Amino acid sequence: MPAILCRIFLIAAVMLQPHFARADDTTADKRFIISAELELGVEANVKADDTDSEVRDVFLSGELELAFALTERITLFSELSLESVTDAEQNRAFDDIALFVGTLGLSFDLDPVTLSIGKISPAFGSAWDTAPGYFGTAFAEDYELEEMIGLSAELELGAATLTLSAFYPDDTRLSDSFGTRRGRNDPRGGDVGNTGKLNNFALQYDREINDTTLHFGLRHLARGEEDNDENAIALGLSHNFGDEIEVIAELAHFNGWEGSEAKANIATLGASLRRGAYTWSAAVSKRGISDTPSDHMIALGVDYQFDNGMTLSAGYARIREEEENNNLVALSIVIPID
Q: Are 211 and 241 in contact (CB under 8 A)?
């Protein structure tokens, strides 16, 4: 089944690309937009306090983004993802791969507001995407908001952007996947935020000041059947020193972490140095949850970008989690399909 899904993904990307390219060449408004990439790699826990955790995962993943302008102000958008949907519990190669819909909806350009409705990824924080290196985003991904049903309004304020969102986790058939089945989300599970109602909210304010970008985020996830509400704040910045050095920092604080009575703090600091085709990076992250030992991560990485746009990445991370040490290494290549 994974081989079939890979073929579907490749055929869609390759066959659609020439069609969309011709549309871009022959229409002034460029009604069609498509982008895709595939990633092939291996990730391994090479030394762990718990030797059962020393597993190797050879993986394939990909993303296909599509946009079609229905009118000058209304756009249909979608993102398809291909990846393993389970954690590796033993050595595996190209296993548990699934194809699923990450986003799907309509956006309305109501200048200066852009309104998006459908399956969306609400804005809250950014370190889960911007932390440098292969492993740099590991802890920040804990609070990424994705695959939500709802609406968001993005207001342009000169050098600043304000985004407001109302949402709940997708509980339609699109929450399941093709290939390896991950199962349809059921809001009756009672997890925080998983309410089936538009009673979860997020706010994000981003502002650019010369070479510095600042952001401030708030979010509220409503309690499930037996949970507490979760309320959170995220503060972050990034700064470019010329064209070669970039530094990012973000702190996220949570009351009612994951619907419990606990408080949590997740801090991420990262830096990258670009030299020609190489980008060297380092990141540190700390996760502290009430009444439990803190988790720590130190990550190093290097990327090499070829002239054709492909990127070869290598990474190392030492992670202390639940008082156990793990040493992870990874090597991957990302192939853009333009």
A: yes
Q: Which long-range contacts (CB under 8 A, 24 or more apart) does 302-310 make?
A: 302/278, 303/278, 303/279, 304/277, 304/278, 304/279, 305/277, 305/279, 306/277, 309/336, 309/338, 310/334, 310/335, 310/336
Going residue by residue through the chain, which has 338 residues, state the pLDDT in tens, using 9 for 90 and above.
444 444 444 444 444 444 444 444 444 457 889 999 999 999 999 999 999 999 999 999 999 999 999 999 999 999 999 999 999 999 999 999 999 999 999 999 999 999 999 999 999 999 999 999 999 999 999 999 999 999 999 999 999 999 999 999 999 999 999 999 999 999 887 799 999 999 999 999 999 999 999 999 999 999 987 789 999 999 999 999 988 999 999 999 999 999 999 999 999 999 999 999 999 999 999 999 998 999 999 999 999 999 999 999 999 999 999 999 999 999 999 999 87
Given CATH 2.30.130.10, say whether it is the number of domain 2-337. no
Helix (H, G, I), strand (E, B), or coil: what is residue 280?
strand
Per-residue DSSP letter, 188: G
Instruction: Give the whole-angstrom CA distance, residue 261 versus residue 281.
Output: 36
Burial class of residue 95 (count of CB atoms within 10 Å of its CB; 0-12, 13-18, 19+): middle
Where are the chain's structural domains? 2-337
Query: Could you tell me the end-to-end alpha-carbon distance of the chain, in angstroms, rounded to an integer?
Result: 26
Residue burial 53-80, b: 16+ Cβ < 10 Å; e: rest: eebebbbbbbbbbbbebeeeeebebbbb
With 0-12 / 13-18 / 19 or more C-beta atoms within 10 angstroms meaning exposed / middle / buried, residue 8 is middle
Global pTM value: 0.89
Q: What is the DSSP code string of 23-91?
A: HHHH-TT--EEEEEEEEEEEEEEEEESSGGG--EEEEEEEEEEEEEESSSSEEEEEEEEEEE-S--SS-
| 7 Cβ contact partners less than 8 Å away, ≥ 6 residues apart | none
